[in-house]
Specification:
Keywords: Transferase. InterPro entries: Acyl/Acetyltrans_Enzymes, Acyl_CoA_acyltransferase, GNAT_dom, YitH/HolE_GNAT. By secondary structure, the chain is of the alpha+beta class. Helix 1 crosses helix 2. The protein is built from eight helices and 14 strands. The chain folds into two domains: 102 residues, Gcn5-related N-acetyltransferase (GNAT) (Aminopeptidase, 3-Layer(aba) Sandwich); 154 residues, Aminopeptidase (3-Layer(aba) Sandwich). Strands 1, 2, 3, 4, 5, 6, 7, 8, 9, 10, 11, 12, 13 and 14 form a 14-stranded mixed beta sheet that branches.
């Protein structure tokens, strides 16, 4: 990782350096300033799973962050790119992005862009490849979803990890060999089995104001019934709690989630640089991990 970088920004020195776990509290304060729901624990997780950079002003105050996550040698994602409202428009976000892209080299890189950030990412050779809908709420009505004959939901077991990594990697096109075990440490999980073979799963974990469901991985089908059964399982166990799920629009779960009472509160653009991911078309990631890690 690169060391300290300094730049003169509007007459004030900005220092760029690697993100450390000591920066979590300052990063959380910065994201809270923008209305993001992330807790200290949420920042801790993404920081431990990845690497990144911060921007500091002359007083040592964090004014910008950016993180990235490497998935094997060929792909990565980046996110948590934040610049203090008082410092926006001064090139800090672009510098953080340049440092992250230098760190990632020639990997295929995925990110989720807000309307405010999309223009910068396009300048850095990212191209739009889809959208992701954010759904959340507390007053939802999960239905009982029937599964095909021979299929059932069951608890995850300690021997399932290798298969979970395989499914998560195939569905996302990203090597989840490192991320998935870390997620399992902070999540609960349910498996979808067919005649004893694990063919899908969904995790839920504490996040922000309540809980986040994801990833949700299941075989592709016309009615998405398997993914709906996995999501409904966690909703039925958390009635009245705040629950969030981020789902790719092409998975066509948004209308169903809206009907359950999980309102769509935002949509981000999925963008890629240096080519496209090679996901297995027979599986889908119906719910992403989060908008940063993808």
């Amino acid at each position: 990782m690169s060391g300290r970088n300094e730049a003169q920004v509007a007459g004030h020195e900005i220092v760029y350096r690697p993100f450390s776990l000591l920066d979590v509290a300052g990063a959380r304060a910065l994201s809270s300033e923008l209305g993001w729901p992330h807790r200290v624990e949420d920042w801790q997780f993404v920081a431990e799973a990845g690497t990144g950079f911060v921007a500091e002003d002359a007083s040592g105050t964090l004014v910008g962050t950016g993180l990235c996550w490497k998935f094997g040698h060929d792909s990565a994602s980046l996110g948590m790119v934040i610049v203090s409202p008082q410092q926006q428009g001064r090139g800090i976000g672009r510098k953080l992005m340049e440092l992250l892209l230098e760190e990632l080299g020639e990997r295929t890189v995925i990110l989720h862009a807000t309307a405010e950030g999309r223009h910068l990412y396009e300048k850095l050779r990212f191209e739009a490849i889809g959208t992701v809908d954010q759904h959340q709420g507390t007053a939802f009505r999960p239905p009982l979803v029937s599964l095909p004959p021979g299929e059932r939901l069951r608890p995850l077991g300690s021997n399932d990890t290798a298969r979970l990594i395989e499914l998560a990697s195939r569905a996302s096109g990203l090597d989840r060999g490192t991320l998935l075990p870390a997620l399992l440490e902070v999540s609960q999980g349910i498996a979808l089995a067919r005649d004893g073979d694990l063919i899908g799963f969904a995790l839920i974990r504490r996040f922000g104001h309540g809980f986040s469901i994801g990833p949700v991985v299941a075989p592709d089908s016309d009615d998405s019934s398997r993914a709906k059964a996995l999501v409904s399982y966690w909703l039925s166990l958390n009635a009245g709690a705040f629950v969030r799920i981020d789902t790719p629009h092409e998975c066509q779960l948004s209308a169903w989630l809206e009907a359950l009472g999980l309102s769509r509160v935002g949509t981000v653009v999925k963008m890629a640089r240096n080519g496209a991911l090679r996901a297995d078309a027979s599986f889908r990631q119906f719910g992403i991990v989060n908008q940063a890690v993808c």
